Amino acid sequence: MLGISAIYLGIGMCVLWIVQVMGEEWLFCLFPFNCVLIGVKTVRRAVEEWQGPEEGRIREWNKPYLKWLNEVLLDASHWPVAALILMLPLLGILIGILALLGQQPDSVIRAWTETGDWRLSQQIPPPNVMFDEHYLCTVAAHGHPEVVKPLRTGVRNGHRVGVNRQLCVANAFEQILEERAAWLHGPIRRFYDRYGFPVARLIRSSQAADLVYYMMKPLEWLFLAVLYLVDEKPENRIAVQYPHAPVPKWR
User: Does this model's pTM top 0.90?
Assistant: First the structure.
Protein backbone atom coordinates (compact mmCIF):
# COMPACT_ATOMS: atom_id res chain seq x y z
CA MET A 1 0.00 0.00 0.00
CA LEU A 2 2.84 2.39 0.83
CA GLY A 3 4.39 1.51 -2.51
CA ILE A 4 1.26 2.61 -4.36
CA SER A 5 1.16 5.82 -2.29
CA ALA A 6 4.77 6.49 -3.26
CA ILE A 7 3.86 5.91 -6.90
CA TYR A 8 1.06 8.47 -6.52
CA LEU A 9 3.56 11.01 -5.18
CA GLY A 10 5.80 10.32 -8.15
CA ILE A 11 2.87 10.78 -10.53
CA GLY A 12 2.07 14.09 -8.82
CA MET A 13 5.65 15.28 -9.35
CA CYS A 14 5.46 14.27 -13.00
CA VAL A 15 2.21 16.21 -13.44
CA LEU A 16 3.88 19.30 -11.95
CA TRP A 17 6.81 18.71 -14.30
CA ILE A 18 4.46 18.63 -17.30
CA VAL A 19 2.68 21.82 -16.18
CA GLN A 20 6.04 23.53 -15.60
CA VAL A 21 7.46 22.90 -19.07
CA MET A 22 4.22 22.95 -21.04
CA GLY A 23 4.34 25.45 -23.88
CA GLU A 24 6.99 25.98 -26.52
CA GLU A 25 9.18 23.28 -24.93
CA TRP A 26 6.43 20.67 -25.11
CA LEU A 27 8.89 17.92 -26.03
CA PHE A 28 10.12 18.03 -22.42
CA CYS A 29 6.67 16.75 -21.41
CA LEU A 30 7.19 13.38 -23.07
CA PHE A 31 9.44 11.90 -20.38
CA PRO A 32 7.26 12.76 -17.34
CA PHE A 33 4.13 11.75 -19.28
CA ASN A 34 5.70 8.36 -19.96
CA CYS A 35 6.49 8.04 -16.23
CA VAL A 36 2.83 8.73 -15.43
CA LEU A 37 1.74 5.95 -17.78
CA ILE A 38 4.22 3.53 -16.22
CA GLY A 39 2.98 4.41 -12.72
CA VAL A 40 -0.69 3.90 -13.64
CA LYS A 41 0.13 0.59 -15.34
CA THR A 42 2.11 -0.59 -12.29
CA VAL A 43 -0.78 0.15 -9.91
CA ARG A 44 -3.24 -1.58 -12.20
CA ARG A 45 -1.06 -4.67 -12.50
CA ALA A 46 -0.60 -4.87 -8.71
CA VAL A 47 -4.38 -4.80 -8.20
CA GLU A 48 -5.03 -7.41 -10.90
CA GLU A 49 -2.33 -9.82 -9.67
CA TRP A 50 -3.44 -9.81 -6.02
CA GLN A 51 -5.00 -13.17 -5.14
CA GLY A 52 -5.47 -12.63 -1.42
CA PRO A 53 -3.88 -14.65 1.40
CA GLU A 54 -4.07 -18.41 1.46
CA GLU A 55 -6.78 -20.17 3.45
CA GLY A 56 -5.95 -20.41 7.13
CA ARG A 57 -3.71 -17.35 7.04
CA ILE A 58 -6.48 -14.78 7.39
CA ARG A 59 -6.04 -13.13 10.77
CA GLU A 60 -8.98 -12.68 13.10
CA TRP A 61 -9.37 -9.34 14.88
CA ASN A 62 -11.10 -8.70 18.20
CA LYS A 63 -11.94 -5.09 17.41
CA PRO A 64 -14.81 -4.66 14.94
CA TYR A 65 -13.25 -1.69 13.17
CA LEU A 66 -9.98 -3.59 12.67
CA LYS A 67 -11.90 -6.53 11.24
CA TRP A 68 -13.74 -4.21 8.85
CA LEU A 69 -10.52 -2.47 7.81
CA ASN A 70 -8.85 -5.82 7.21
CA GLU A 71 -11.70 -6.98 5.00
CA VAL A 72 -11.56 -3.74 3.03
CA LEU A 73 -7.81 -4.03 2.43
CA LEU A 74 -8.05 -7.69 1.43
CA ASP A 75 -10.13 -6.52 -1.53
CA ALA A 76 -7.55 -5.21 -4.00
CA SER A 77 -10.14 -3.02 -5.75
CA HIS A 78 -10.01 -0.73 -2.70
CA TRP A 79 -6.26 -0.24 -2.88
CA PRO A 80 -6.14 2.75 -5.25
CA VAL A 81 -8.44 4.81 -3.01
CA ALA A 82 -6.79 3.64 0.23
CA ALA A 83 -3.34 4.49 -1.15
CA LEU A 84 -4.62 7.93 -2.12
CA ILE A 85 -5.66 8.55 1.50
CA LEU A 86 -2.37 7.14 2.80
CA MET A 87 -0.45 9.44 0.47
CA LEU A 88 -1.08 12.47 2.73
CA PRO A 89 0.64 11.11 5.86
CA LEU A 90 3.43 9.71 3.68
CA LEU A 91 3.97 13.18 2.22
CA GLY A 92 4.05 14.61 5.75
CA ILE A 93 6.72 12.09 6.75
CA LEU A 94 8.86 13.00 3.73
CA ILE A 95 8.55 16.73 4.48
CA GLY A 96 9.52 16.02 8.09
CA ILE A 97 12.63 14.15 6.95
CA LEU A 98 13.58 17.07 4.68
CA ALA A 99 13.12 19.46 7.60
CA LEU A 100 15.44 17.34 9.75
CA LEU A 101 18.02 17.51 6.98
CA GLY A 102 17.89 21.31 6.99
CA GLN A 103 15.36 21.92 4.23
CA GLN A 104 12.49 24.37 4.65
CA PRO A 105 8.99 22.86 4.98
CA ASP A 106 7.90 24.39 1.67
CA SER A 107 11.04 23.27 -0.19
CA VAL A 108 8.97 20.83 -2.30
CA ILE A 109 6.92 23.74 -3.65
CA ARG A 110 9.84 26.17 -3.93
CA ALA A 111 11.67 23.70 -6.16
CA TRP A 112 9.13 24.63 -8.85
CA THR A 113 8.50 28.30 -8.08
CA GLU A 114 12.06 29.53 -7.47
CA THR A 115 12.93 29.18 -11.13
CA GLY A 116 12.81 31.46 -14.16
CA ASP A 117 11.13 31.38 -17.57
CA TRP A 118 8.76 28.47 -16.77
CA ARG A 119 5.01 28.29 -16.18
CA LEU A 120 5.19 28.03 -12.35
CA SER A 121 8.22 30.30 -12.02
CA GLN A 122 8.09 33.31 -9.73
CA GLN A 123 11.64 34.54 -10.26
CA ILE A 124 13.08 36.75 -13.00
CA PRO A 125 16.17 35.13 -14.56
CA PRO A 126 19.37 37.15 -15.00
CA PRO A 127 20.14 38.41 -18.49
CA ASN A 128 21.95 36.05 -20.83
CA VAL A 129 25.47 37.46 -20.82
CA MET A 130 27.83 36.14 -23.44
CA PHE A 131 31.46 35.32 -22.57
CA ASP A 132 33.08 37.22 -25.44
CA GLU A 133 36.50 35.67 -26.12
CA HIS A 134 37.59 38.07 -28.85
CA TYR A 135 39.43 40.82 -26.98
CA LEU A 136 41.54 40.85 -23.83
CA CYS A 137 39.65 43.67 -22.09
CA THR A 138 36.30 42.01 -22.83
CA VAL A 139 37.56 38.72 -21.43
CA ALA A 140 38.92 40.46 -18.33
CA ALA A 141 35.45 41.90 -17.62
CA HIS A 142 34.29 38.33 -16.89
CA GLY A 143 36.64 37.72 -13.99
CA HIS A 144 35.62 37.53 -10.36
CA PRO A 145 33.30 40.48 -9.55
CA GLU A 146 35.32 41.55 -6.49
CA VAL A 147 38.39 41.89 -8.76
CA VAL A 148 37.17 43.26 -12.10
CA LYS A 149 34.30 45.31 -10.54
CA PRO A 150 31.61 44.97 -13.23
CA LEU A 151 29.46 48.07 -13.76
CA ARG A 152 26.63 46.80 -15.97
CA THR A 153 25.95 44.89 -19.15
CA GLY A 154 26.25 46.23 -22.65
CA VAL A 155 25.82 45.12 -26.25
CA ARG A 156 28.72 43.99 -28.41
CA ASN A 157 28.16 42.57 -31.90
CA GLY A 158 24.50 41.95 -31.05
CA HIS A 159 25.32 40.05 -27.84
CA ARG A 160 25.02 41.18 -24.22
CA VAL A 161 28.40 41.22 -22.49
CA GLY A 162 29.69 42.21 -19.07
CA VAL A 163 31.19 45.71 -18.91
CA ASN A 164 33.63 47.17 -16.38
CA ARG A 165 35.52 50.47 -16.30
CA GLN A 166 38.69 49.02 -17.80
CA LEU A 167 36.79 47.86 -20.86
CA CYS A 168 35.08 51.24 -21.25
CA VAL A 169 38.37 53.12 -20.91
CA ALA A 170 40.08 50.91 -23.52
CA ASN A 171 37.22 51.33 -25.99
CA ALA A 172 37.07 55.09 -25.40
CA PHE A 173 40.82 55.31 -26.04
CA GLU A 174 40.45 53.43 -29.32
CA GLN A 175 37.61 55.74 -30.29
CA ILE A 176 39.63 58.88 -29.63
CA LEU A 177 42.59 57.33 -31.45
CA GLU A 178 40.43 56.67 -34.49
CA GLU A 179 39.15 60.25 -34.44
CA ARG A 180 42.44 62.07 -33.80
CA ALA A 181 45.08 59.75 -35.33
CA ALA A 182 43.47 57.48 -37.89
CA TRP A 183 46.87 56.84 -39.48
CA LEU A 184 48.03 55.24 -36.23
CA HIS A 185 44.77 53.50 -35.36
CA GLY A 186 44.83 51.22 -38.41
CA PRO A 187 48.22 49.56 -37.78
CA ILE A 188 47.52 49.21 -34.03
CA ARG A 189 44.14 47.60 -34.71
CA ARG A 190 45.63 45.14 -37.24
CA PHE A 191 48.40 44.21 -34.80
CA TYR A 192 45.94 43.69 -31.97
CA ASP A 193 43.56 41.64 -34.12
CA ARG A 194 46.44 39.44 -35.23
CA TYR A 195 47.87 38.69 -31.78
CA GLY A 196 45.03 39.54 -29.41
CA PHE A 197 42.56 36.96 -30.71
CA PRO A 198 44.76 33.86 -30.11
CA VAL A 199 45.75 35.03 -26.63
CA ALA A 200 42.21 35.90 -25.59
CA ARG A 201 40.86 32.53 -26.71
CA LEU A 202 43.22 30.79 -24.30
CA ILE A 203 41.49 32.44 -21.34
CA ARG A 204 38.85 29.97 -20.12
CA SER A 205 38.54 30.65 -16.40
CA SER A 206 37.74 33.52 -14.06
CA GLN A 207 41.21 33.24 -12.52
CA ALA A 208 42.82 33.76 -15.93
CA ALA A 209 40.50 36.71 -16.59
CA ASP A 210 41.57 38.24 -13.25
CA LEU A 211 45.21 37.90 -14.31
CA VAL A 212 44.53 39.65 -17.63
CA TYR A 213 42.70 42.42 -15.75
CA TYR A 214 45.78 43.09 -13.61
CA MET A 215 48.11 42.88 -16.62
CA MET A 216 45.99 45.45 -18.46
CA LYS A 217 46.04 47.92 -15.55
CA PRO A 218 49.16 49.86 -16.71
CA LEU A 219 47.65 50.23 -20.17
CA GLU A 220 44.34 51.33 -18.63
CA TRP A 221 46.15 54.12 -16.75
CA LEU A 222 47.97 55.13 -19.96
CA PHE A 223 44.71 55.19 -21.93
CA LEU A 224 43.05 57.23 -19.19
CA ALA A 225 45.89 59.75 -19.16
CA VAL A 226 45.61 60.23 -22.92
CA LEU A 227 41.84 60.67 -22.69
CA TYR A 228 42.17 63.37 -20.02
CA LEU A 229 44.81 65.17 -22.05
CA VAL A 230 43.03 65.30 -25.41
CA ASP A 231 39.30 65.04 -24.67
CA GLU A 232 37.17 67.81 -23.20
CA LYS A 233 34.81 65.43 -21.37
CA PRO A 234 36.63 62.11 -20.97
CA GLU A 235 34.27 60.65 -18.39
CA ASN A 236 31.28 61.29 -20.64
CA ARG A 237 33.01 59.42 -23.45
CA ILE A 238 33.87 56.54 -21.10
CA ALA A 239 30.31 56.29 -19.75
CA VAL A 240 28.65 55.83 -23.15
CA GLN A 241 30.80 52.89 -24.24
CA TYR A 242 28.97 49.60 -24.88
CA PRO A 243 25.42 50.90 -24.32
CA HIS A 244 22.37 48.66 -24.15
CA ALA A 245 21.10 50.32 -27.33
CA PRO A 246 22.69 52.59 -29.95
CA VAL A 247 23.23 56.12 -28.67
CA PRO A 248 20.98 58.54 -30.59
CA LYS A 249 22.72 61.13 -32.74
CA TRP A 250 21.72 64.68 -31.84
CA ARG A 251 21.11 67.10 -34.68
Answer: no
